[in-house]
Amino acid sequence: MKKVTIIKSSFRNNSNSNLLADKFIDGLKENNNVIKVVELKSLNLKFCNGCLACSKLKKCVINDDMNSLYDEISNSDVLVFASPIYYYDVSGQLKTFLDRLNPLFFRENKFKEVYLILTSAEEDNSTMDVAISSVNGWISCFENLKLVDVIKGLGVNEEKEILSHQDLLDESYNLGKSIR
Question: Which residue(s) pair with 146 in the sheet?
Answer without folding.
Answer: 113
